[in-house]
Amino acid sequence: MSEFKSGFVALIGRTNVGKSTLVNMLVGEKVAATANKVQTTRTAIKGIVNTENSQIIFIDTPGIHKPKTKLNEVMVETSFGIMQDIDIVLFMIEATSDEIGRGDRRILDKIKESGKKAILIINKIDLIKREKLLKLIELYSKEYPFEAVIPISSLKEKYKNTILEEIEKHLKPGPAYYDVEEYTDQTMRQLAEETIREKALILLQDEVPHGILVEVTKMNLRENKNGQEIYDVEATIFCLRNSHKGIIIGKNGEMLKRIGSMARSEMERIFGTKVNLKTWVKVKPDWQEEDSIVKKFKLN
Domain boundary at 173, 196, 223, which? Predict the structure, then answer.
């Protein structure tokens, strides 16, 4: 039997390149919020993959972007700071790029600086022709000695084994850091907050920017009259302006009901038990600049 291997793998890339979708596919469970929007991931989220011979801990990082608030600054610091403590970098780019843009160049420079083993993932190959893909591979291969270049369309499961096998090849022998039953290091409270925020992002489209923060204020497990376990969850959605509050609540409270209903269904699937969810909306101007809130998104 081959020696057991383990290690930490960071997914890094620009915003909206498909990192969270890929992490969820590789882990086989929902560990990261996925909304087709910029800056969906705000902190480093771990997803754990256990195979017969290895344990791979994936870290989904916030997308690299130009920071405009304290929160944005912390998000970018998190993405770059994580590189010091990991074994392999999965650098994700879009196949539709014609050249190495400013954001990808920044990431490349950080990878060079770290000297870490890196695998290049080229996403959305279904959108381009083969000739363009080959040019892109050549362009990036001249920049850094990647262990492998894997072109994918992240929504297709067939790439999962290819990526996992390639990573396993480059891991060192090591212990299992987490129980084999675990697939994320997030608490149930964090999973609940992420689920509500994701559903809000999906349903609100572009009407409300990423100025929402979700805080679960109560999470209590009890038995109902029939002896069934049920989680009572209470959460507050904070937004930046009164106008945003109106949009989140919607006419006759319809939008908030939809967000709550979608989030509750997803939580019941994740927790494997009934959920009684209550949500409120409050205005908290400039929360993105508040140190007490922003520090939650810093690397531990």
Answer: 173
